[in-house]
Design goal:
Two copies of one chain form a homodimer. The first copy, chain A, is built from seven helices and 24 strands. Chain A is an alpha/beta fold. Chain A has four domains: about 170 residues, MoaB/Mog-like domain (Molybdenum Cofactor Biosythetic Enzyme, Chain A), CATH 3.40.980.10; about 50 residues, Molybdopterin biosynthesis moea protein, domain 2, CATH 3.90.105.10; about 70 residues, Beta Complex (Molybdopterin biosynthesis moeA protein, domain 3), CATH 2.170.190; about 80 residues, MoeA, C-terminal, domain IV (Beta-clip). In chain A, a hairpin with an 8-residue loop joins strand 17 and strand 18. In chain A, helix 1 packs parallel to helix 6 and helix 4 packs across helix 5. The longest helix of chain A is centred in the last third of the chain and has 20 residues. Chain A is elongated. Chains A and B meet through helix 1, helix 2, strand 14, helix 3 and helix 6 of A and helix 1, helix 2, strand 14, helix 3 and helix 6 of B. Chains A, B: It catalyses: adenylyl-molybdopterin + molybdate = Mo-molybdopterin + AMP + H(+). Chains A, B: One of its GO terms (biological process) is Mo-molybdopterin cofactor biosynthetic process.
Chain lengths: ~425, ~425
């Protein structure tokens, strides 16, 4: 067991031992929103299905126009006029032309389209006054999507436009990974369910609801196990059950110095191996990760902000990797701090903040009090400022770097421009 | 009926006549993710519930230390030592002190906490060598959240941290607006369902699946009505049914010049009033909006990209307003174009693109072909570049402005930093 690892070491240890779960499901397309493809999807046909014209004009043979010049125009006979929405029925033979509209299939025999304004039109003929290049003004079949082309690859999460595109290809069901099952165990004698009446010395269990909802946002399936008291046997029993039903196990509470033995002993009792304890990070220092039979147990702090921050930075990448997603690590963004943070940071610290734009600049605004027990500042938080160890207080106007953990669009505001 | 309105005029017309639907539901907290609060939620108690100490120290009376000086220290008797996690049971009487830990309630009688290192500790006494200010080192009850304070206001969409915060306040159910019901009618003789075998001249109906999924992403409930042929009676019947069951009606197809009469006559036939036809926008020009009994009908182009773009810029704000959300208009962002767009834009144009970050700069990248019938470039699109009418071709490096229509985080990539 390692002690005091960095966040990056922790991520590397965890991601290094996980791979996507192998359970697949075939879903009806409308039910696949937010799910992750378990196989590459290939186009069953070309789009467009045939060579087509990008403009209104005449389909002709380039060969026929080889000798054309302004003083020696070539005259071609118009053998068919195809209205909009219809398709040609004849073949362009030497000396002939077919009038077609934008989007129409190129008639057989033709290898170039000349636009109306580039010819001289008469009753049943056209005059071409310059040689035309074979292939000009023809959109080849498969130009947008080629038959057999991978249009969506394994690991892609299905969004609305992708569902629309697959529908346009006549794909009505898709192979996806089954949802990752995440067991959540909240430990603590002091926990009350929000539906219970408050009692002195007790606190409401927020971690259950917060982490369940976060799992759902990520497309995972939370499996909730009743909260358990700070007793080794109770925690071990719950862990044992969790490992049987879930792909990933999260515990909260009982991970700090004083309480640590309970969870540690429970982890040992179920035969799991603790890989590391303590991350050099505030909040979230008392985090432990263990493994059993390829499954990972994250033992997070019981403080809601610490639990959420370590969940987002460490458990979410694991969950995404198990889900089969390709991009699993939180991206970073930099910006200018718009409010000060007075405390020094002897240890590396994550501050709850939101990203905003003003006159093209990236602004980063703390969302409120940063104590471990304060949930309010998490509500609008979509980034976590990464404050390196040894940083003095942060001043307004300072450049900072942050992990993106939420939807950046949420903190932008639209305006009616008229 | 107005003709050729601007996008902003169209948004103003539509938003001006809508207000949130009034149907409420009370949901169990875990079921409320993504829903919109229909009432303000007030804190039922103070957080913290009592005055508490932000540090390990001694709770004393400021009055007792008034005359304290380094050459005249005040000696106070330590009458109780409260271990971590426990609460004081005694009252601080004149001349006494109680030893408390971070987070402990301030004992009765005390009005200041002095930290361990600022006193001289002996067996049962402490020496204070300077006057202490009443109220120092005390976090007052309600400092984080005051009883009765609005912690989440009407119109807020519930995310995971907000659900966690409400749980921490002992709130186990919440009032939300019912989901907005959006009827989707796809018109067109040429439409096939993706489950059907392809036939010449037919195209697969992608608009149904694309718009249904988009509605779900926004927390709305799509109500799908079978696709209908380009016949006035069939469209009118479908519209009539849609107006009866839905809060908002979307039609696709039959809105362009040639086909327009079908939808227009159908709208007239159900007694709806057409407010405008045609938006000065490409793609999406052939868009009409009608109203009946306060309900809005959006008649969108049948081309998938045009349908999606006008849905995002015009129908989504309407849907969000009906949903009760506060921010309904798409925000804008500016950035540097990384690939060229060769065509001129005699009309205002929206280009499918994605936002990226590189070395702190906002980059905007076209996601592919921009034709109305190309769906591929919608898949990764999270912004729409707003190209003003009369713009020549766009060059690499040019500054452009765009509407944000997707999750900006989706186009950022994380990296393991170690």
């Amino acid at each position: 067991m390692r002690l005091n690892v960095s966040l990056e070491e922790a991520q590397e240890i965890v991601l290094g031992m996980l791979r996507p779960i192998e359970r697949e499901a075939i879903l009806h397309l409308p039910d696949s929103l937010g799910r992750v493809l378990s196989r590459d999807i290939k186009a069953p046909f070309n789009v467009p299905a045939f060579d087509k014209s990008p403009l209104d004009g005449y389909a002709v043979r380039a060969e026929d126009t080889k000798m054309a010049a302004s003083d020696n125009p070539v005259i071609l006979h118009v053998i068919e006029e195809v209205p909009a929405g219809s398709v040609p029925t004849k073949r362009v033979e030497p000396g002939s032309a077919i009038r077609i509209m934008t989007g129409a299939p190129i008639p057989e025999g033709a290898d170039v389209v000349v636009r109306f304004e580039d010819v001289e039109e008469a009753a049943d003929t056209i005059k071409v006054s310059q040689p035309l290049a074979s292939g000009a003004n023809i959109i080849p079949a498969g130009d947008d999507v080629a038959e057999g082309e991978v249009v969506a690859s394994t690991g892609t999460r299905l969004n609305a436009p992708l569902i629309g595109m697959l529908a346009s290809l006549g794909i009505s069901s898709v192979p996806v990974y089954q949802r990752v099952r995440v067991a959540i165990i909240n430990t603590g004698n002091e926990l009350l369910d929000p539906s219970e009446k408050w009692l002195p010395g007790k606190i409401y269990n927020s971690n259950r609801y917060l982490l369940e909802a976060r799992c759902k946002e990520l497309g995972a399936e939370p499996v909730y196990l009743d909260s358990v008291p700070d007793e080794e046997t109770a925690v071990a029993e719950s862990l044992q059950g969790a490992l049987e039903v879930a792909d990933l196990v999260i515990t909260t509470g009982g991970a700090s110095v004083g309480q640590y033995d309970v969870v540690k002993n429970a982890i040992n009792a179920v035969g799991a191996e603790i890989l590391f304890w303590k991350i050099a990070l505030k909040p979230g220092m008392p985090t432990a990760v263990a493994r059993k039979d390829g499954k990972v147990i994250f033992s997070l702090s019981g403080n809601p902000a610490a639990a959420m921050i370590t969940f987002d930075l460490l458990a979410v990448p694991a969950l995404k990797k198990l889900s089969g997603m390709k991009e699993v690590l939180p991206p970073t963004i930099t910006g200018i701090l718009v409010n000060a943070f007075q405390k020094r940071s002897p240890q590396r610290r994550m501050l709850r903040a939101k990203w905003k734009k003003q006159n093209g600049s990236d602004l980063i605004e703390l969302t409120g009090k940063q104590s471990n027990d304060v949930l309010k500042s998490l509500v609008e938080c979509n980034i976590l400022i990464d404050v390196p160890a040894g940083t003095p207080s942060l001043a307004v106007g300072q450049h900072v770097s942050a992990y993106v953990v939420g939807n950046l669009t949420d903190s932008l505001v639209g305006e009616l421009k008229c």
